[in-house]
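tool_call: predict_structure(chain=1)
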Amino acid sequence: MFLRVKALSDNLKREDLIRDSINLNELDGWEMVSSASLMKSEFKYEGSKFEILQSYAHAVEILANISNTNGGFNIISMRSVWIPFLFLCRHTIELAIKYALDITKINIPKKEHHISKLWKLFVDRNRELFDENDTKIIQRIDTLISVLCEVDDDGSHMRYATSNDDLLYRVKPFFINPRSISDEIYGMLTVIISIDSSLFI
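tool_result:
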C-alpha cells in the first residue's frame, strides 16, 4: 500500500531521531536543541525564556535571507517559506512582548495571544518611563505590530489554510518585504533586551 522510501534502516528507532545524552564520538548530524538546559539551575529559568526568544528571532533572520527571485523575476511556488516566516515573525513578537512584560513585572493575562493587546498593555503600564526619543521607537513597533495583525490577527492565519468555520484565510495575494520585517523585529528585540530591569524592582 505505501511506497518504499529510503531510510536509515528498515527499523526506525527513537534513537535515530532524538537522543537524551551527549555522545562525543557521534556528534555529526546531531544538534543540541537548548543550550539553556546546560545552565546552572539558578539561571536556567530566565535563560530558557531568553533562549527561546533569541532562537525564534534567529530563524526569522535566516528565512529573511532566502530569496524567491531569480534575475528580477519573482518565483511563485507552493513551497514558499513565507507563510511559516510570517508565523515565526508573529510568534517572535508575541514572545518578545511577553518577555518585556515579565521583566517589567507586569502580569500577563492568561491565554492572551493578541500581540496588539499585549503591546498596548506594555506601553500603557510603562508610559511614565518613556521619554521623547522613545516615541519614535514605539511608533515603529506599533507599525510592525499593526502589519503583523493585519496578516494574522489571532495567530491562526499562518498556521492553517482555513478557519474553524472552514473559510479560507488567504483569498487575495499579497507581498511582503522579508528583510525589512526581519530588521524591524531585530530593532524591537534590541530595545526590549536593553530594558534595565533594575528600574522596575
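agent: The mean pLDDT is 85. Proceeding to next step.
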